[in-house]
Every structure is written in C-alpha cells, then in structure tokens.
Amino acid sequence: MPDRPYIVGNWKMNGTRTMLAEARAIDRAAQRHPGVQVALAPPFTMIGALREAVTVLGVGGQDCHANVKGAHTGDVSAAMLADIGADFVILGHSERRKDHGETDVQVRAKADAALAAGIAVIVCVGETLADRDAGRAEKVVSGQVDGSIPLGDIAADAVAGGKVAVAYEPVWAIGTGRVAAVEDVVAMHAAVRARLIAAYGDAGAKVRILYGGSVNAENAAGLLSAEGVGGALVGGASLTADAFLPIVAAARPVED
Ligand code: PEP
C-alpha cells in the first residue's frame, strides 16, 4: 500500500490545556479518514496531555536537543520526547533557523538524535523571498536538504520504515497568507526528491515531501493533489478543528 498523505498541524507557541478539546475533535474526525495520516505538534508542555487525549493522531514535538541529556537549560532531548509519548519531531523549522540561528549541521545532529531515540523526523527546508527573487531558491533548498537530512545506518533504516519526511516551506509563505504557486511547488518538490535520491538511493523516492506555507481549506485540494506533494505542514489553520479538518478532508486518501 502506498504511503498515506501526511497532514501535520504545527501549533507553534500556541496552546494551553483548553485546546485539548480541539485536539479531541481533530482526533475523532481523523478516525473517519483512515487513508490519511494526521498528526499534531503542540508545544512541549502539552505533548503528554495531548498523547493521553487522542487515539489515532500522531503527536510530536517542534524541536529537540541533539544530546540525550546534560547541562542544556531549557532544552528537551529526543529521548525525553519519546518518553512522554511523542512519535515524531519537527526539526529545522524556519522560525528555529531564524530565531535560534540553527544551522543545517545542527538540524542534522538533532535528526540523527531523534532517530536514535526511536522517533520520526520532519526536516524543514525553504527559501526566503530574497532567495527566490534572486533566482537561487532551488540551490538554497537543495543545499538545506543535503546538509540537514539524517545520514548513516540509523537513517537508512528510518527511511525504509517511513520515519523520515521533509517539509518544503518557503519562508515568505509561512503565516503570511501568501501561498506558493502550484507549479513552483511541483518544481521544488522535484528538486528535493532528486537530493533525497542522491542521499538515500532508491529509498529516497518514497520519502514523503510535505508542502507548508499558509495552507488552508481553500487552497489545500490544489496543493495536495499536485505532483510530488505527500502532505502538508500546517500552522495557523491547525489551531482549530474547524480550520484543520477541511485540509484533512482535502487529502486524497490511500485506498487499501
Ligand atoms: C508552519 O508553521 O510550518 C506553517 C506552514 O505555518 P502557516 O500554515 O501558518 O503558514
């Protein structure tokens, strides 16, 4: 059976326990869409409660430290995420790269640590508007893929097991209401695919590549049916069931 489309909500720094009601509503609806894989990444503080509150939803973190433990005040390791019930972690989001100066090397180290802890990874890449205007978007994104994705034996097993995904998120489309043109998304996903095959061989052809950047109920069907788009990473429109569920419903389910 081919991989299911993967729809992931990134709650960013939003969410207190009152939002568990939204997560439960999303979970109930996800049960009616078994051909779509649905997940939420709440803030660290809500991962445990959300894990307990839902049944079919994947639950993930939005970052992890590359070390297992130690003197890193305020940080959380991948082993800790796994311990509290997380299935996956989003890494290298452009907000982490910008706000915390995260580099490709650091993102790769975190991805390796997450896989070693037994959780899946979604590695984010994407160009700035300046990159796109200068005609270097594909070069920048390809370089981020080459530098950020996990490598080595653990990664090979994880890729084979469907535990590695890449999210292409043009920085200028995140939280702005501006969406990349479908033909540009298709072209960039093909460029990312080529780098994944270069890194992982044939197995790279099966790694899911998600699109992220102002996905909503209106544009989801067009984006999710585009060539090479394996799902969506959704920020603002994942905060309520009303906004998120039409995106889940727009994903073309996998048939048995
Ligand atoms: C994101 O946070 O990854 C994202 C794509 O946000 P938004 O959907 O709000 O643009």
Provide a concise account of the structure shown.
With 256 residues, the chain is α/β, with parallel strands linked by helices.
Question: How would you describe this protein?
Answer:
With 256 residues, the chain is an alpha/beta fold. It has one domain (6-251): Aldolase class I (TIM Barrel). Helix content is 41%, strand content 15%. The protein is built from eleven helices and eight strands. The chain has helices at residues 20-30, 44-53, 78-83, 94-99, 104-116, 129-133, 137-148, 153-160, 182-200, 220-224, 241-250; strands at residues 6-10, 37-41, 58-61, 88-91, 120-125, 164-168, 208-212, 231-234. It has an eight-stranded parallel β-barrel, surrounded by seven helices. Helix 10 (220-224) links the parallel strand 7 (208-212) and strand 8. Helix 5 (104-116) packs across helix 7. It is globular, with a radius of gyration of 17 Å. The chain starts with 5 loop residues before the first strand and ends in a 6-residue tail after the last helix. Phosphoenolpyruvate (PEP) binds at residues 10, 12, 169, 174-175, 212-215, 233-237. Phosphoenolpyruvate binds next to strand 8.
Defining traits:
256 residues; alpha/beta; TIM Barrel; globular; binds phosphoenolpyruvate
Radius of gyration: 17 Å
User: Sheet with the most strands?
Assistant: 8 strands, parallel, barrel
Structural class: alpha/beta
Unreliable stretches:
none
Query: In the CATH classification, which architecture applies?
Result: Alpha-Beta Barrel
Overall domain count: 1
Mean pLDDT: 96
CATH topology: TIM Barrel
Which term fits the overall shape?
globular
Please give the oligomerization state of what you see.
Answer: single chain
Strand order of the largest sheet: 1-2-3-4-5-6-7-8
Helix content estimate: 40-55%
Number of strands: 8
Number of helices: 11
The CATH H-level superfamily is Aldolase class I
